[in-house]
TrEMBL record:
The lineage of its organism: Bacteria, Bacillati, Bacillota, Bacilli, Lactobacillales. It comes from Pseudolactococcus hodotermopsidis. This is Ferrous iron transport protein B. It comes from the Bacteria. The chain holds residues 2 to 264 of 699 of the full protein. Mg(2+) 1 binds at residue 21. Mg(2+) 2 binds at residues 24-25.
Amino acid sequence: TENTRFALVGNPNSGKTTAFNLLTGSNQYVGNWPGVTVERKSGKYSKDKRLTIQDLPGIYSLSPFTPEENVTRDYLLSDDYDVVINIVDATNIERNLYLTTQLIEIGKPVVIALNMTDLLVKNNIFIDTEKLSYSLGVPVVNISALKNNGIEELIAVTKKALRPEVHLHYDERFEASLTEISAVTQLVNRFELIKIFENDAKILEKISLSDEQANEIAEIVAITEKIFLDDRQSIVVNERYQYLTSLVAMVERKTQGIRLNVS
Ligand code: GDP
Ligand code: K
Ligand code: MG
């Protein structure tokens, strides 16, 4: 699969560099941002080299004053990243979320890493992360970069945030077998899962399943074929057509003699 680029953004001292070091370990590259003498640090996630992580100078808002703030703003408005991990100091959320609102407005996927959560109890602070997430419309993950807590969940949630929710759902019994194939293969891409279900030679060649995985999938498919009283390829074709039949019934009205769609 292709390379995915995460940008670490947050206020100064929110813990970006601590998180960056934790994520990248020794896989770091130091350079300079073009045109300015601001140090640029990027790296690869130590547990998955396909993830590139960019540390960025701390900012309080997207109205920059300093060269460092300009670097971050220009980067955020560029196409050089796929998703923002917004590092938020949980002990100081009001000031930190001021930046968050602007990050969300940029329109790229944002995940909030609520950092320094190890200090919350001591400081008598409780944060309802579910409400926070719901209100802002972005995922929130509790972490402590200092104590190395929540980092793997943060990565998992961030990967997921890259893919918009799939609203295209087929029959629950077919969806169930896709979910099982996903569990067996650790794949999440719907296209690939469906192709595996169909026994598509090209995809199977690309992902090369182990014998054990192939056997488990054969079992899942056999059960589904029994339920549908149909073969694997026909099941997929039928599901697509059935979905489209109800979709079109919902979105299309036949007009008598009047053509609404002039193209
Ligand atoms: P940056 O300016 O955003 O890059 O922040 P740093 O990573 O340099 O961290 C600023 C300070 O906060 C340092 O003293 C870190 O050790 C500390 N820090 C970072 N993350 C945490 C955390 O999760 N908990 C606590 N208690 N301190 C943290
Ligand atoms: K700092
Ligand atoms: Mg830093």
